[in-house]
Design brief:
Two copies of one chain form a homodimer. The first copy, chain A, is α/β, with parallel strands linked by helices.
Amino acid sequence: MADSKLQIIPLGGLGEFGMNCLAVRWHDDIIVIDAGLMFPESELLGVDVVVPDISYLIENKEHVRGIILTHGHEDHIGGLPWILSELNVPVYGTEFTLAYVENKLEEHKMLDDSELIEIVPGAKFGLGPFTIEPIRVTHSLVDCVALAIETPVGVIVHTGDFKIDLSPPDGKAFDLHRFAEYGKRGVLALLQDSTNVDRPGYTPSEWSVKPRLDELFSRTKKKLFFSCFSSSIYRIRIAMDLARAHGRKVAVVGRSMVESSEVAQDLGYLDVPPGLLIHPGQIADHAPEQVMVLISGTQGEPMSALSRAAVDNHKHARILPGDTVVLSSRVIPGNEKSIYRVIDHLYRRDAQVIYDDGASGLIHVSGHASQEEQRLMINLLKPKFFIPVHGDYRHLRKHAELAQSVGVVDLALVIENGDVLELDRANASKAGKVTAGRVCIDSGSAADVVEDLVIRDRRHLSEDGIVLPILTINKQTGKVERQPDVFTRGFVADEELIESARQVVAKTLDGSSAEEKADYGVIKEKIRIDLKRYIQKNSSRRPLIMPVILEI
Amino acid sequence: MADSKLQIIPLGGLGEFGMNCLAVRWHDDIIVIDAGLMFPESELLGVDVVVPDISYLIENKEHVRGIILTHGHEDHIGGLPWILSELNVPVYGTEFTLAYVENKLEEHKMLDDSELIEIVPGAKFGLGPFTIEPIRVTHSLVDCVALAIETPVGVIVHTGDFKIDLSPPDGKAFDLHRFAEYGKRGVLALLQDSTNVDRPGYTPSEWSVKPRLDELFSRTKKKLFFSCFSSSIYRIRIAMDLARAHGRKVAVVGRSMVESSEVAQDLGYLDVPPGLLIHPGQIADHAPEQVMVLISGTQGEPMSALSRAAVDNHKHARILPGDTVVLSSRVIPGNEKSIYRVIDHLYRRDAQVIYDDGASGLIHVSGHASQEEQRLMINLLKPKFFIPVHGDYRHLRKHAELAQSVGVVDLALVIENGDVLELDRANASKAGKVTAGRVCIDSGSAADVVEDLVIRDRRHLSEDGIVLPILTINKQTGKVERQPDVFTRGFVADEELIESARQVVAKTLDGSSAEEKADYGVIKEKIRIDLKRYIQKNSSRRPLIMPVILEI
């Protein structure tokens, strides 16, 4: 390592969306910004989540001073259980962010062994040679910060995820002044969110969805199902306000939605009047026009409450003809098939479905800065060097071009996961690579079941093996045409266990509706979960389970 | 069957996009409109194409009078080889449509045994009790028709795919007058394309992309790679015109693009001046600013010319820093990952990439009618009954609502594949179901290799079995971490063949670049093809081959 160089080393999120993680190093001191996860591509069968490969941090264990979180989204905090189990260092985050982290660590029974330190916007703190100031930014989630990090060679600013919302529903304003002051004093490098670099203009405020949602509430005659990302606290707040205004009680359905709304209430981000909430079991006791069901599952996640309700397989959330379902969210690329399958199922139930089809009005806004906000930040901070973060390679490239074109940046540099960028007061250049990559985790947890943490990556394959259940489904009839096959490899299983495994699969199939069997995402996930439980109970192994469907 | 009822029986394309196929029956006479295919979802490993289940037609073999094609897109003609091999009936289509069909049947060595009958817009022909008039419509492809079918209970009109292009580049206008005349005389039922029911307004003309493309040609300093759907004859025509105007020679790369442009030239839809075309091998002989490469692969298809060029694995189409790649096409839902992977690879080659990112201007237009055109057709034809075709369930529902709201339709009915709709002069209602569904085909043909037709669906599984090569790839290094595993089931293979199969997979991996190995779509397809060749050569079987990637 060079003697007088600061190193910036992205370990995740540069060249991909998700699992954001970035190390900043000065000599023998390393700080880590964010510890996210991503959800696997469809090619990665049998995997629950993907986290960054932190070999570099493990090799430098004694130098890592802490992990600083910018906000509480999964792509920024979701990798913590895995990372902390390898590297138990203090975790810094704002009050709301840490509340999410606590839930997550509690779930994995790791909370007692973790050191969580609350940070407050505007309050500087020191970590080794670094002095760090969290600066309040706005985003789709509450209590988000950017980080201004004073280093021996100058200040670097990491925006985290942000947009410049000039009227955030909680009144906690984007701190334009603080960024302006840093810009005036001089910023060595700006690391900025690239997500929306394709969008011209300015992202609308979180408030801006309210008028259109108000109209939808007005014209809905029966039950109203409202779905949004469970972390969209502003959206939940707006939906609850509208429910109250329109005389509807609110039932919260789906684990993530329940947890998230409870955290938001505890911390004062949701002000729920007494009597507004009802238990999901009480939905049937109220007239349809007096109920709003706040339900999780906007992305068509196979085991989510909304997916199950859509195939009439949820105990409390029953969707009947004439009910309205509002998906106040976007279609995340890669999720189209799952989402549209759920929407088609909802239409088959004769529900009205309002989703982001280009003609439904402003029912969702992005949480990320568009081009003009990106330019505004660059103008405020006037950084010498600009490094785009969070995005596929093409987003990073476009963002670097945008920054360069603003005219105040000396040099915009595109780096990717594993690149080592070295900076001093005058120069910035790539200097080698460290190990980086993705680790696939089969976490063992599923749907509403909380299991203990099982960190298992694909490297353990040779230990526990693979199980491939092969199903032959007749698409039209929804019938299973042959007895399910179960292949194994590297997994010590006697004929008896295999035969029982077959019966488990057959039983899961028997217990599923034709609609579920026609929805491969759902049926594969059901089989994976049931078979996993069975095998773990009846052998000491935890093989990877990857259902394969043959359609005839 | 009721005595005096006309039956409309969709066998594909209603409740899904692709594999359009619809039967119309009067007593013992059946005609079939279109015979399309669809490309498989990612869940269907090891499958090349999907075609409709035509059990109903096979059971009624002696009653089927012919298949009438509306136009030459794969989702309307792609299923012909399979369907004709089960049901050898005459095929009716326009000149250009039949040219595509001839190529397809020739490839499968079926041309000599097929009866192809050319139809001409405006020229009625009889088939059993039906009198059919093809009516010229406009679309992204040339020589497309709607069908007006006189039946004993009234006229039904099937639009095929259409938009109302008031200035088509070939001057062959949408026949508004003919539709108006049918409307005046009375139409019993209209079956109309639902694809763009989500889009308000009016779809722009095929011409409308020219100004923006002209700008792109003007500012491009090095080689220009132009990619569009190979059947987009208008687009190819515009690109060639611009190439000539800007002093560029044209090299056509990719099998489908070569075939399609040759057909278009033969039939006078492309007027190519002598000396404009060069052989791909001559690209390197010309200055970069004097070359346009017309290349296939807008959807990121793993073995397409553009995908291979993007990872620097195409002999002639070499993309160098400063070259421009224009994707004059849309991102078809489901293909995002493949397309964006290709775009990221292109950026890594330091190419300029112009694609449909919302900020590139009008570089592509849809071929399908938007809401105002759909309303216009309904107004022109004033049908008693309206039946939406071509779309997922939600599209059909929305289209039915749109039609009903126009105010001239008595009844809009949503039917799906397999439903039997019965009509007489006064009534229309669902009356039972026939077998319908999807058949998966492993066609044996790949990339530039033309093999003979192998119709094999999943039902033959028990005969030829499955081979699952399992690869363990280190995402970061691109290295294969373990010897490939090869599982088999229902496939009689000795240890020696399995061992050789392993070596085939290992060899394919050795011969692939790190970039290719990081692109699962590409590497899986390469392994599937190589292994398929090897196994077919060394055994009499044709097992399904489904590569599975484990990422570590």
